[in-house]
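[job 4471] stage=fold_predict status=RUNNING
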Amino acid sequence: MKAVSEVIATDGEARLSEVTLAGGKFQTPCFMPVGTRGAVKHLSSSDMKDLNAEIILGNTYHLMLRPGSDLIRESGGLAKFASWDGLTLTDSGGYQIFSLQPKVDDLGATFRSIYDGSSHHLTPELASTTQADLGADIQMVLDVCSALPAEKNILKEAVDRTALWASRGREAFLLHPEAQERQSQFGIVQGGTDISLRIESTQRTLQVGFDGYAIGGLSVGEGRSEMLDPVSAVTELLPKDQPRYFMGLGDPAGLVEVVGRGVDMFDCVLPTRLARHGTVLTSEGRINLRNAKFIADERPLDPAFENSPASNWSRSYLRHLLVTEEPTAPRILTLHNLAWMFEFVTQLRKSIIKGEFQKFRKETLEIWG
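[job 4471] inference complete, writing structure tokens
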């Protein structure tokens, strides 16, 4: 099903939209937490409901290995399996092509399981049918993501292979009527920081025709300033009535910059990963709670964020839990960081409605830039 994006308000290129999928609606800009194996680390689906999360990501590579896409299909799909009432998105396994460096050719990618070492061959067709089994509201087409910096010939090869796989992945999706009825499939644009390749990849992805579009292969080693012009080159060509998704971005400065270039959706493990290592997001920037200066600090994590799930406890107490490796600490810090991110996005949306996005962007960059 085509993901329809109804633009409610704009401020420059920044836009607030309501996106309609077969399984429900959500507002953008939208931050999506990552639940790699069917859960956000340390949290439950009930926690995510309490945090007012709208979409949670699942990782196709991990879920196809354990517990297996067949089991999840028989359980009614990923959301039902996890007792989650909201929307879900599954990636394609393309990031694993980037991070695990499997053997890749035009047919697909051959992986070794991180669990038992067994070999698995992932093709664009299998990525689509596996995600149909997982039953997420949005499935991503299989793509090739190159690390940056990279030579132009490497980026060109990734663009060509991504386009080839896009055609095959889309064909497989369209041959699955049940998936078409309940899922949206997003295409992915590659090309690194090369503007001409970004434009070429966008045009080729649009020619295939997807239900929504994603920008991949950025925020993978390049500086923030290097990624912004390629983002603009892509969003200028994408349909205005479909959502634009920047894959793998989760720092506040990066978010305001890409929203200012017309991006609607983003995901990242950053807020939850930081929390597990004792780093907290606050209105004054990041703080490392392991720092000795917080030993006797009786203030809450972020005094300016009264609705934090962690507001009942002091920095001193939470630091104590953290340094003594009490499992409660990463759970509370994860709840806080995600709640903080959702509140940040809420304020970002409000700034667009009020026509104050540039002011919000400037204030964000002063703290996080």
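[job 4471] summary: The domain at 4-268 is CATH 3.20.20.105 (TIM Barrel).
[job 4471] exit 0
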